[in-house]
């Protein structure tokens, strides 16, 4: 967990300083996804600096993507899975590979902010994960939301449809549709509970694409 904490802090610092170095070299023929929607300013951080993201722009494995205040970004991966990234978020495409059957094995790191993932049919359990410092949200089917507070010490996950396993070193819970959990670093996820209409509206609105 210390390594994840140090990595998160380093990436946040790079964004604040406006420096985009440190990512793996980009192979222009190896895009794993494309930008499908953008509102406001969103950038990819790569070896060659910061690349402003526009509709149709490629997304690569090892990209770090940052959205500015009020910005929202949509990404569709080659297997058909999608991400909606809300304002003030920092993510990394930490791993992405498509197997012979067409299903993806993907890991998205969320360092701060919010994302909503809609997973392509046929993705096996655990085939698409969102990692945070506090816990991992591992898809078992369909659609879920993950948030991380700016201090990187608290995450929450909510199952929109299907089921999601939220795995922390101190315990694991499985979320059914309409249920969510909160996790602090070093603690077990709180037992699943049905989120109120107001909280659901808020996270869905923050990840609604233009």
Care to describe what's here?
The protein has one domain: Jelly Rolls, CATH 2.60.120.1440. It has a 17-stranded mixed sheet that branches. The longest helix is centred in the first third of the chain and has 16 residues, at 2-17. Strand 14 (164-168) and strand 15 (171-175) form a beta hairpin. By secondary structure, it is mostly beta strands. Helices cover 12% and strands 47% of the residues.
Question: What is the CATH third-level topology name?
Answer: Jelly Rolls
| Total helical elements | 2
Distance between the termini: 35 Å
Percentage of residues in DSSP E strands:
over 45%
Overall average residue pLDDT: 86
Uncertain residue segments = 1-26
Topology diagram in text:
Layout: H1 2-17, E1 31-39, E2 42-46, E3 49-52, E4 58-60, E5 64-67, E6 72-77, E7 82-85, E8 90-98, E9 104-118, E10 128-131, E11 136-139, E12 143-148, E13 154-161, E14 164-168, E15 171-175, E16 179-184, E17 193-194, H2 197-206
Parallel strand pairs: 9-10
Antiparallel strand pairs: 1-4, 1-6, 2-3, 2-5, 5-8, 6-7, 7-9, 8-9, 9-12, 10-11, 11-14, 12-13, 13-16, 14-15, 16-17
């Amino acid at each position: 967990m210390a390594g994840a904490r140090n990595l998160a802090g380093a990436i946040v610092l790079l964004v604040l300083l406006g420096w985009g170095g440190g990512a793996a070299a980009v192979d222009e023929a190896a895009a794993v996804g494309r930008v499908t929607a953008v509102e406001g300013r969103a950038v990819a951080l790569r070896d060659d600096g910061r690349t402003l993201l526009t509709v149709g722009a490629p997304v690569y494995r090892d990209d770090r993507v940052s959205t500015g205040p009020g910005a929202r970004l949509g990404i569709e991966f080659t297997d058909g899975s999608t991400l909606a990234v809300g304002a003030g978020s920092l993510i990394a495409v930490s791993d992405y590979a498509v197997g012979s059957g067409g299903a993806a094995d993907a890991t998205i790191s969320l360092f701060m902010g919010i994302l909503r993932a809609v997973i392509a049919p046929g993705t096996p359990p655990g085939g698409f994960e969102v990692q945070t410092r506090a816990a991992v949200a591992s898809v078992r089917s369909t659609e879920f939301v993950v948030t991380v507070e700016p201090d990187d010490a608290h995450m929450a996950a909510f199952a929109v449809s299907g089921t999601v396993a939220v795995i922390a070193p101190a315990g694991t819970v499985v979320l059914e549709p309409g249920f969510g959990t909160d996790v602090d670093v070093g603690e077990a996820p709180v037992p699943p509970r049905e989120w109120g209409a107001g909280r659901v509206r808020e996270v869905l609105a923050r990840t609604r694409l233009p």
